[in-house]
Write a structure and sequence with these properties.
mainly alpha, Tetracycline Repressor, domain 2, about 0% strand, globular
Length: about 170
């Protein structure tokens, strides 16, 4: 399905850096309220919690009236700072998992997962017509999960088990 970019170009948005900063702070706050982190968050596994956080983030972006304008802007320092903060928070949550069978490079995995989340969501909210929100959640989570939970450690020279035919 071919999509067309929205007509809300960066010069037509009228958003300031403060507006964008408030947007991303509100977005992060909504996700934290919906899926709290900690032992009383009601979610048993790391991947389940991250799937819920991803879904809430995408749903909030879809619902927010400024999303198209925010994601249509050129990537500036405020957006980069928000993206780095998002990656750093995900890396901290990854480090807290402590899976003995998994040895991900937490910073790299978090950056890759965040890039997928932001890139696919940006494409979706700036497209006309927008793809269904749940389809975006499913697409994003499929790739994020693969980057957040690499295969078990191999005993040979490779640090991760590769799928047959992957090379």
């Amino acid at each position: 399905m071919a999509t067309k970019p929205s007509t809300a170009g960066p010069r037509r948005t009228g958003l300031t850096d403060d507006d964008v900063d408030r947007y991303f702070r509100a977005l992060a706050g909504a996700v934290d309220r919906a899926v709290p982190i900690g032992p009383h968050g009601g979610v048993r596994t790391f991947l389940t919690r991250e799937r819920l956080r991803t879904a809430v983030w995408i749903h909030q972006v879809y619902r927010h009236p400024l999303s198209s304008a925010v994601f249509a802007r050129p990537t500036g320092p405020v957006v980069l700072a928000a993206r780095r903060s998002h990656s750093a928070a995900l890396a901290r949550r990854l480090e807290g998992v402590g899976w003995p069978a998994f040895v991900p490079h937490t910073t790299g995995c978090a950056i890759a997962a965040t890039a997928v989340l932001w890139g696919v969501t940006e494409d979706a909210v700036t497209s006309c017509p927008r793809p269904p929100c749940e389809q975006v959640v499913t697409d994003v989570w499929g790739v994020m999960r693969a980057s957040l939970s690499p295969g078990p450690r191999a005993t040979g020279p490779l640090p991760f088990v590769r799928a047959r035919g992957a090379w």
